Known about the structure:
The chain has helices at 3-27, 47-58, 66-80. By secondary structure, the protein is an all-alpha fold.
Amino acid sequence: MDAAKLARLGAVIFVAIAGTAAVLEMSREEKVAELSPVRTVGAERDALRDEQRRCQQLGEVAAQDTACLKVWAQTRDRFLGHPAPNQGR
Length: 89
């Protein structure tokens, strides 16, 4: 057998194996995890988070709402790592 025929035979075998693998992969059904992601630690109710949601729902009106301005200040302080005003600085 000459080299050209051997190369063609190798290419045909390679394509056949690759095609078979592709068909098997496409026909395989994926098992969907029945469990949804669940928090392992129960989160406590966060009053600041609830106020943030309320202000978010207010939309542009929240920019003039003093309670929302206070909530945003507390959120900013929490994010920047500043202690809460009642803990003393």
